[in-house]
Amino acid sequence: MTRKILVFLVAIITLVSLSISSIVTAELNEEDVNYKNQNNNDIMTTTATNEEQYLSKISDEVLSEFNAVGSSEKLSIYVWLTGLSDEHIDDMLLQQDPENYKLYSDAQKASDNKQYREEYSVRIETLQPSIESRRQIIQNYFRERNSRFISEYICDEDIIHIDESTQLCIVKADKNTVMALAKDDEVVKINLYVELEFIDLQADANSAIRADYVRDSYGLDGTGVKIGQIENAYLILLIAIWIRLI
Prior knowledge:
Layout: H1 2-57, H2 60-69, E1 75-81, H3 86-96, H4 98-112, H5 114-119, H6 124-151, E2 159-162, E3 168-173, H7 175-183, E4 187-192, H8 202-209, H9 211-218, H10 233-245
Antiparallel strand pairs: 1-3, 1-4, 2-3
């Protein structure tokens, strides 16, 4: 009798243990499923967000044109790459041309600090070498970076123009290539490139400003006139300094 009761108790304990084990396993499986579902949802959300980010780089005109002509057709597009910050340019100037970096740095200090400006006389003749050095460094950077980057996606025959002074490239590309470009972190924007017809307005301009009269009456034809381009805000400030100090 005692043996039967013992066997009965063992059987009860075994059943309870199996039940508890099943419940725990079921709960673990449910947690695992919930984790996988949440993980999949996170992946889908991230993928959708990335897709929206890529598409935001491509102009509506480019997407509309592909819808009209087909994805396999190649469109002429502007590809705008990441630019250079003033800090990055200054770092390159410091590493490659320390002497001219000091000239340029001193000029910046003169433009930012009134007391320093009064003590330090900035002249275009002394500053010009540092401006030329800075410009050359920028051109070298964009020439190498733009050519290297575009060659990874575009064959030579589809390259229309690679700028050597800015982050602009003009190429021909199908939709798959455009999407690949948009996914690259170095690409900022992709716009549709349209060739414009050049209209010579020289005759109208001469008439409007009476250039013929000035040339014929006074012999002034523009010889010796220098045309300059202001490259950034620092130079605008420096021009004001030159006017004051010279």
